[in-house]
Design a protein that fits this description.
Structural class: alpha/beta
Helix content: 25-40%
CATH architecture of one domain: 3-Layer(aba) Sandwich
Radius of gyration: 26 Å
Strand order of the largest sheet: 4-3-5-6-7
CATH superfamily of one domain: ANL, N-terminal domain
Number of helices: 21
CATH topology of one domain: Rossmann fold
Distance between the termini: 52 Å
Number of strands: 28
Shape: globular
Strand content: 15-25%
Largest sheet: 5 strands, parallel
């Protein structure tokens, strides 16, 4: 697109000055910021930052949840030709050091006291960090640190500057070009330091516009911005597409009120990783199990109709008259109230991405009338690579290449992408850039997959993670750990899985139970427990998880390629995997290599034939303190099945 983010903002402010641009829930009340208000806010912040010394080409760190004034700060930086760098608000202080030093950051805008404390903590290691501005003043009255100011004081200085220099802001915006750097996003860093992915206005806005055209989005649409702005998925949906399309972005009051706010807003366009959809469904099923016998029977009877008829109706396929009547009755009695309870009564398009979604979970949402689809992309591709058309949504693919995208497969099966949305480079890392961007413009995704007969892309796993079993009955069989992990995570009682098997004779897994789902299951059976560690060790819970493992094995036995990846042994971990303990990335992806090293004693026990193993693990609490959790973990053998040969 031949424009920039600030120019799009000013265009919206001219076209519909009084129209709602963003809403923020504060003290239980929704506050609206119009397009003209947003333009005025951005102008004042830009002038304030300009006066404070922010230079064209400099980086400005932004840390916090989705807040109109933090989005305005990003636009203000872009108006001056500076580059916003959003960081994860739940990252500990030490994780902020590398991005801040790598990008030579002098200026940062943060949400509240928690983020101010982090920035002050890292100042010794980041001496260049001289300007810290905060949005929420609560708890900061007695802070007296050099360079620490409220956004309100920056706004006041900016307003005064704008009055004294009326054309200065527009002159700065006019200098911006589509190929200028617009933003930098740090990857989650599953191995080594995170990499700064550099994107221009053109790359981000082109992909945002392609997605907008694909799903026919418009100013009438509403979204809920609740995922971290540092994640490019949220940034595209609630920032780039917001400015391309002009729809309304709603910011929840807090992470704890998201589900309530979702119901109040009733978004028409919704985006979430599979774990969010899993969590919503788990909460529904927990409530359903607690309902009376008549309600439960009614729910299950109509859900049988939905599973049989719903996906066909969603895909526009022919359905019999009686099935159509039964579905309509179910919609009145069950599906409609259920969509309303989930906050999806107005959703026209819902996307999931980041991980594979279970077929049952995917079908559930589509069967009750929610147009849930999958997409494929990454930080480096500005998200949109493949999208699923409305009538071609399937759980086992990620869609077809979207507008402007070419896909081909390397000899090793790696997916290569050519797109107008590709990164400019990794910041200060030409070697890493050369590894992923070929001279003729192909981006190496590191994902293994193939294009099926209908032109849809299927993802198997990360290329580096696809391994081979060695020795034993399945010598040489392909092992795709993420595929195995995701099949187990499709069960509501299982939250996380780490699978091992490459260059080994069999597959073994470590499992995290879903504490809420299994806790509810235990309470309904009058099974007492004293926290996660105790619940995870119960023989009854092991039996429940073993049933899930063996169902997955039976399913894998029907897959000719992956029948050898059946799970031979498993254990249930004594603690939940946590990003603060380095076991997950900030986007909640398992750091398999790190976990393998940290829990080497458990890996050895799984493969050494032991029936139990004692372990003590250090953990980090939210307030920064450390402690330890210890337990003797049971290790179980799982039943495996002979491969089922396909019928001739």
């Amino acid at each position: 697109m031949q424009t920039t983010f600030p120019r799009l903002l000013l265009e919206h402010a001219r076209q519909r000055p009084g129209g709602p641009a963003m809403r923020e829930k504060e003290y239980g009340i929704w506050q609206t910021t119009s397009w003209s208000d947003m333009a005025a806010l951005v102008q004042s912040l830009a002038c304030g930052l300009h006066q404070a010394g922010l230079q064209r080409g400099e980086h400005l760190v932004v840390v916090g949840a989705n807040r109109p004034r933090l989005y305005a700060a990003m636009l203000a930086a872009q108006s001056l030709g500076a580059i916003p760098v959003p960081l994860y608000q739940d990252a500990v202080a030490a994780e902020c050091v590398f991005p801040i030093t790598n990008a030579e950051v002098r200026f940062c805008v943060v949400e509240d006291q928690e983020q101010v404390d982090k920035m002050l903590e890292v100042r010794e290691q980041c001496p260049a960090l001289t300007h810290i501005y905060y949005d929420d003043p609560r708890g900061l009255r007695n802070y007296d640190q050099p360079g620490l100011q409220s956004l309100d004081s920056l706004l006041a200085a900016g307003e005064a500057f704008a009055k004294a220099h009326p054309g200065a802001f527009q002159a700065q915006v006019d200098q911006g070009q589509p190929d200028d750097v617009a933003a930098m996003f740090f990857t989650s860093g599953t191995t080594g330091n995170p990499k700064g992915v550099v994107h221009s206005h053109r790359t981000l806005l082109d992909r945002a516009a392609a997605g907008t055209r694909f799903d026919k989005l418009g100013p009438q649409d509403e979204v809920l911005a609740y995922m971290p702005p540092a994640w490019i998925g949220q940034n595209i949906f609630s920032y780039a597409q917001w400015l391309v399309t002009g729809y309304v972005v709603n910011c929840p009051e807090s992470s704890g009120t998201v589900n309530i706010d979702l119901k109040e807003v009733g978004p028409t366009y919704y985006f979430a990783p599979p774990r969010i959809f899993e969590g919503l469904l788990t909460s529904v099923m927990i409530r359903m199990e607690d309902a009376g016998a008549i309600k439960r029977r009614l729910f299950h009877a109509f859900m049988d109709v939905a599973r049989r008829v719903g996906p066909d109706l969603m895909d526009g396929k022919p359905v019999g008259v009686f099935d159509r009547i039964a579905y309509r009755l179910g919609d009145w009695m069950v599906y409609g109230p259920l969509r309303n309870s989930l906050g999806f009564s107005r959703v026209r398009v819902a996307y999931t991405a980041g991980e594979a979604i279970g077929p049952d979970l995917f079908s559930f949402y589509r069967s009750i009338g929610i147009n849930l689809k999958q997409l494929y992309g990454s930080t480096e591709t500005a998200v949109f690579v493949c999208l699923q058309p409305d009538n071609e949504a399937r759980a086992d693919t990620v869609g077809v290449p979207c507008e402007g995208v070419e896909i081909k497969l390397s000899e090793s099966g790696e997916i290569l992408v050519k797109s107008p949305g590709l990164l400019k480079a990794y910041y200060k890392n030409p070697q890493a850039t050369a590894e992923v961007l070929s001279a003729d413009g192909w981006y190496h995704t590191s994902d293994a997959g193939f294009i099926d007969a209908s032109g849809h892309l299927k993802i198997i796993d990360r290329v580096k993670d696809v391994g081979r079993l060695m020795g034993g009955a399945h010598d040489g069989a392909m092992f795709a750990p993420k595929y195995v992990e995701n099949k187990l995570k499709f069960f509501s009682h299982i939250k996380e899985v780490v699978a091992f098997g490459d260059k080994r004779e069999k597959v073994c897994v470590m499992i995290n139970i879903d504490f809420d789902a299994v806790g509810n299951w235990a309470e309904r059976r009058n099974l007492p427990y004293a926290g996660y560690t105790d619940l995870a060790a119960k023989p009854e819970v092991y039996a429940l998880i073993q049933e899930c493992v063996e169902k997955v094995n039976a399913d894998l036995a029907r897959d000719e390629l992956l029948a050898g990846s059946q799970i031979s042994r498993f254990l249930v971990l004594h603690k939940e995997l946590d990003a603060d303990d380095g076991e997950l990335t900030r986007t909640n992806k398992v750091r398999r290599g790190f976990i393998g090293e940290k829990y080497q004693v458990l890996v050895d026990a799984l493969y050494g034939g032991k029936s139990e193993q004692y372990i003590e693990t250090q953990v980090k609490f939210e307030d920064g303190r450390t402690g330890s959790v210890s337990a003797t973990l049971q290790i179980r053998d799982a039943k495996t099945f002979a491969p089922v040969k396909a019928a001739a």
